[in-house]
Amino acid sequence: MAKVLIIYHSRTGNTEEMAKAVAEGVESIEGVEVIQKKVAEVSVDDLLGCDAVAFGSPTNFNYMAGALKEFFDQSFPKMRGKVTGKPYVAFVNFMYSGKEALDAIENICNAFELKKATDGATIKGLPSPEALTKCWDIGNKLAKMAAK
Ligand SMILES: Cc1cc2nc3c(=O)[nH]c(=O)nc-3n(C[C@H](O)[C@H](O)[C@H](O)COP(=O)(O)O)c2cc1C
User: Fold this and answer.
1) Distances (CA, A) of 69 to 75, 123, 132, 139
2) Domain containing 39: what range?
3) What residues have CB less than 8 Å from 111, skipping those under 6 apart?
4) Which of 76, 105, 113, 131 could pair with 127 as two cysteines, CB 3.0-4.6 Å apart?
5) Best mutation site among 17, 57, 62, 94 for ligand 1 pocket (most ligand atoms within 8 Å of CB)
6) What is the distance in A from the centroid of ligand 1 to the CA of 21?
7) Looking at ligand 1, which residue's alpha carbon is closest to its atom 31?
8) What lines the ligand 1 site, CB under 6 Å?
9) Which residue, by CA, sits nearest to atom 28 of ligand 1?
């Protein structure tokens, strides 16, 4: 069974709502298992053991949350060359602009040599039903790539 890992940080719940919708999109594909974890609970083995990964973060000071950046920083030496070509998507919540945080996550994913499954989602504040559909869609696309 293919495994899709969703790694996210959320302080006030908006990014967590996005993560749940991404997870539902993943689960819509038969034969794909979803593992949803807050970044503080994720291990290097979780990332090595999955077939695809989604990263979610709020925008803090025009960047990703420090907790997610710390995960990238500490895991990079152990991941280098071991996750090449693994599909990923990113999703970001924001109040003013989410592009900078999304770009920052995607730049780091490039350094890890992960492969972008589809364009990421940037959503303002409490996600609307339409915003949640967008998150569901990226989860669905990611799971299809994981299942291949
Ligand atoms: C310390 C801090 C810094 C923030 N900086 C930004 C920012 O630079 N740009 C922005 O659009 N939103 C910023 N925000 C707003 C959050 O991105 C927004 O409230 C988001 O919905 C929080 O997501 P969460 O509910 O998943 O924690 C900031 C929030 C906090 C607490």
Assistant:
1) 10, 20, 24, 22
2) 2-147
3) 76
4) 131
5) 94
6) 19
7) 60
8) 10-16, 58-62, 93-97, 125
9) 60
pTM of structure: 0.98
**What pLDDT, on the 0 to 100 scale, is given for residue 13?**
98
User: Per the structure, how many domains does the chain have?
Assistant: 1
Determine phi and psi for 123, rounding to 5 degrees: -130, 135
Q: What is the CATH number of the domain that holds 45?
A: 3.40.50.360
